[in-house]
Design a protein that fits this description.
Number of strands: 4
Helix content: 40-55%
Strand order of the largest sheet: 1-2
Structural class: alpha+beta
Largest sheet: 2 strands, antiparallel
Order of helices and strands: HHEEHEHEHH
Strand content: 5-15%
Length: 144
């Protein structure tokens, strides 16, 4: 089996880079924040049109169960980096947030989890208003 070539980029990254720039640049941003993912792996599936599309770790119970140990190990390793644990900003207000809150209730990783709209949602459905979301992110970040 061969791995198909992917001729695309993650639109979420465009938003994140714009937001970081608006925050004051990479040095200022990463001096204060650490960005990671609940699941350290990305998944794709093939759409009915034969196109490779994003597939989230929470899109099927079977996949979630298959990667659960990896998710937990990855989060614990990241906590051991010495990151601050009082506030976690969750990029996603729906299933990603719900999953992280449930996991946090069990593992007690963070004191508080604040959901923010997912960059992919913003770029896919609200691209023309992304400056409003960037201001919202920065407003939340500056509270910390």
């Amino acid at each position: 089996m061969s791995i198909p070539e992917v001729d695309t980029f993650e639109t979420s990254s465009v938003y994140v880079y714009e937001m970081i720039d608006a925050f004051g640049g990479v040095e200022k941003f990463y001096d204060k924040f650490f960005i990671s993912a609940v699941c350290p792996l990305g998944f794709t599936t093939i759409s009915n049109k034969g196109k490779s599309v994003n597939y989230n770790y929470y899109d099927s119970k079977k996949l979630t169960e298959a990667v659960m140990d990896l998710i937990i190990k990855s989060l614990i390793i990241q906590i051991e980096f010495g990151i601050k644990r009082d506030i976690c900003f969750c990029l996603g207000t729906g299933k990603n947030h719900k999953f992280l809150v449930q996991l946090n209730n069990e593992l007690k990783l963070f004191d508080k989890i604040i959901p923010l709209e997912h960059p992919r949602y913003i770029m896919q459905y609200k691209s023309k208003q992304r400056h409003i979301y960037i201001k919202k992110y920065i407003k939340e970040f500056r509270k910390v």
